[in-house]
Amino acid sequence: MNDTYFISAEHMTVGYDGKPLIENIEIGVRRGEILTLIGPNGSGKSTILKSVIKQLRLLAGTVVLDEQDMAGLKERDVAKKLAIVMTDCIRPELMTCWDVAATGRYPYTGRLGILSEEDKRIVDAAMATVRAQDFQDADFSRISDGQRQRILLARAIAQQPEVIVLDEPTSFLDVRHKLELLDILKRMVREQNVAVIVSLHELDLAEKISDRVVCVAHNRIDRCDTPEAVFSGDYIKQLYGIERGTFHAAFGSLEMARVEGEPKVFVIGGGGSGIPVYRFLQRANVPFAAGVIQQNDVEYPVANALAAELVSVPAFAVIDDEAIERAKQQIDLCKAVVTTVEIGETNRANEQLIAYALDKRMDTESLFDAVREGRL
Fold first, then answer.
1. pLDDT tens string 248-261
2. In this structure, CATH architecture of domain 256-372
3. Lesser CB count within 10 Å: N end or C end of the chain?
4. Topology of the domain comprising 7-240
């Protein structure tokens, strides 16, 4: 492995009860870098992380931490360099949230575990970093899962590590706190030169925060590359075996499978305006057609994924008569037409469709009501 890695797995084999799950693993992370593990449930992401941090015994190979074999290091020495935030939440009795965060200082205290004033200051700063001061005196066993996750991160921060290993740290967090946690990690990486290894289910987050991505599937490391390389083309669809639905690499988002059948509604959209209507019709199990949309339009990937029929033209092309005629043919087959688009120079031809569909036109709210009431 490259000797610039702060922590690395070399020829590592992991598994349970002496039975290999994934063999010959070669991964590593440098200081100032985030390495993210993604892959289907049960693929072995957590097993890899637990093996790296010595919660599971290696079946073969070594884990090197700061140029030293971790197998030969004392736990206190490891704890001064490596902090852990795992999904298996600890369940301490009669400890406040502040007390749990303070356990991050124990690698630095004496045998009696007495915290110095400096230790207490560091714990207070860690609690402030994760915005947990409001419940720092609460019983740790009585707070929500999301709050527990923040306290465990505070404990890791108080440890002042050089590498943090996190297993699904965003699982119990709401949107705001997911973003705050990842922002904290990015700032630690940038400002303190910390190395981070994290497993994530949220592909959109993995794409946004990672420096490199490890893809785990089929009992092997399937790929290790930059987010730009991993989240492109159909690779994610292949990695997860997606058969019903679509993953949009450009947006890091998932779309449900389109509703098949003859379209009942034609949506004249564009510029992102049609996306809420597309998703509403998909949820309502109503097949629809859409157009005319340029392939560089922000809503083209969603329309392409969800519309039973889509009339489009190449990127930056002017909408021509042929595309308009194809759209009119679809309108003839539909019961209703809804217009969401704002007309500009490049899509002005869509005005012809709006005029053509005058007798079938509905505003958005009327369409929603008609669908909900089963009139389409």
1. 766 667 788 899 99
2. 3-Layer(aba) Sandwich (3.40)
3. N
4. Rossmann fold (3.40.50)
